[in-house]
Amino acid sequence: MSDTHGRPLSFPRHRARTRNFTLGRPRSVTVADDGSRVAFLRSGDGTDPVNALWVLDVESAEERLVADPVQLLADGDDDVPPEELARRERMREIGGGIVGYDAEAGATKAAFALSGRLFLADLVAGGATELPAAGPVIDPRLDPTGSRVAYVTGGALHVVEADGSHGRLVIGEEADDVTWGVAEFVAAEEMDRSRGYWWAPDGQRLLVARVDESPVRRWHIADPAHPDQPATETRYPAAGTPNAAVTLAIVALDGGRVEVEWDTEVLPYLATAGWAAGRTPYVVAQSRDQRSVHLREIDPESGATHLIGEETSPTWVDLHPGLPAWLADGRLVRLTDHLDTTALALDDEVVTPSGLQVGAVVDVGDDWVLLEASDEPTERHLYRWSTSAGLERLTQTPGMYRGAIGGDVLAVESATLDTAGTTWTISRGGTEVARLTSYADAPSTRPRPQLVRVGTQELRTAVLLPRDDVRPDGPLPVLMAPYGGPHFRMVMTAHNAYLEPQWYADQGFAVVIADGRGTGGRGPAWDRSVHLDLAGPVLEDQVDALHGAAEQFPGELDLGRVGISGWSFGGYLAALAVLRRPDVFHAAVAGAPVTDWRLYDTHYTERYLGDPTTDPDTYRRSSLLDDAAALRRPLMLIHGLADDNVAFAHTLRLSSALLAAGRPHTVLPLSGITHLATQEVVAENLLLLQVEFLRSALAHPDDVPAGGPA
Description:
Structural class: alpha+beta
Number of helices: 12
CATH class of the largest domain: Mainly Beta
Oligomer: single chain
Radius of gyration: 25 Å
Helix content: 10-25%
Distance between the termini: 35 Å
CATH topology of the largest domain: Methanol Dehydrogenase, Chain A
Shape: globular
Largest sheet: 8 strands, mixed
CATH superfamily of the largest domain: Dipeptidylpeptidase IV, N-terminal domain
Strand order of the largest sheet: 37-38-40-39-41-42-43-44
Number of domains: 2
């Protein structure tokens, strides 16, 4: 790809323009329950951020464009409601156009929002029709019969018939801090619950969440670059402060309402809810300390609930999206900790072997369960368990896989080390019948990660060295590039995971990426080893990985020139490294770092560190602020001023503490940028500025002042 002058695009610019080479890929894949068609989203090319709705007819293997945003918005109206922008931020959505849709099981129709307008697509004949809506639309969902669409506008839940008639308000109230049918902040950000209502199977009632945010403290996110504009007021539940009050009601289409009853004082978190086919509705609720989770069945007539399942833990109970579910014979499908393994269980019977860590339940049929699982944390495979065949592994080549299923058709997305990007393969009865076309750009960088296990803990580690034609002489300065936070792995058998690290390597670094304790995929004990300490174990493991990599690559790594960079938790870890281990780390770039865990949200932070009002020492040990006076290495702090997840206050507080201690440092504020820097020029120049900072700081580390190179 070339710029406007015909010159090849640099990797940083190409990466930014293609949103890390994700634009143009098929995404959001749904298979009809009879296997006849596959619906998906895809933009027009590798630099087009506007997604359209497509369908693959499995029999003919032909793809059809169903809904094109450019045609649907011929009037040029492309304003996205603020509520939808906030929802996309929680979901880390970087695309535009149609970013999500909801189809009934037969995948004959799909509802979606586009620029706040409501549309219903015909997935069989093609085309989409706009339906009347009472206001800017978010999160539209078809009822299971395909007869009507529910949506939220203005914090209230509305329903309209599929033919556009009889639009009506189902439930809402005149209160600024109360919404119906919308997920609250911590549910969307931390519980993987982006929805706030669930249809009954017959389409006559809905289970709806009521969220009262009045207890939650107000925060004000301002952009000093635009002093003429008021600050954005938001409700942010920081650790130790009140959460939103969330309750449920069963609401009939005629407005009848039954309050769902459970002890919200003991179990305040609504993890999920729903209606299982052939069963009464249910709610999954979690305690504030996250050590107890109840599955409770709801009497739809009275709203009373009774306990049908419970998980407890001395640390925390993980929430598993896609669950609960039931087989046709009534057995409860769940994930449970067994022999240091996250295992699939049916009622109380564990049906997967020790060591096979189940990451997610993808789908459940009458007598089968589709799983994502692996016995190797750098891989993710698809498995199917059934009453007739037991456990079967569906993917074989080392890689990262996810899937969708309908009838005898399985759609599999695969990513491996050998192939750029991802491939969606459609199989019927085990035989490949089609592949979804990808328009994603091919990156010019060809990563060459070497995946190794280092240290006594066999830390999964990737080492990337420069290409031979750009390799400087002698041992290389090292760049550690971790995330390091709980339940998130960086080292994986996927080509595109290493595009940016390889580019850094080609600038003259030995790049080391390591997944330490807490990062997932190695069993419950590994995950929970960071309980009450988010600093010590993760930093120790980065030091161990660095030394282990140096042993496995003798003469390649210069341990006298070690930098570290990261974003979000990785930014926290980078700053932590130079503050607490300046003997090992000689420079750091910390992007959007959490610096004081008392400023981060309740559900995430209290899971790992407890309640700051009763455990203040735990928070102090994991905070960066008290370490400010120890800085004697170059540190660059980067932060978006519009970040409403890790607020800019984190960087400001650390910078203030550093200034008070007389420790020079560099701060790079990003005007108008949230937690994700997706703007092309910003994303490109961030890479260039970071590499120049690190290159200068590590050239002669003992001669560089703490503030960084001049």
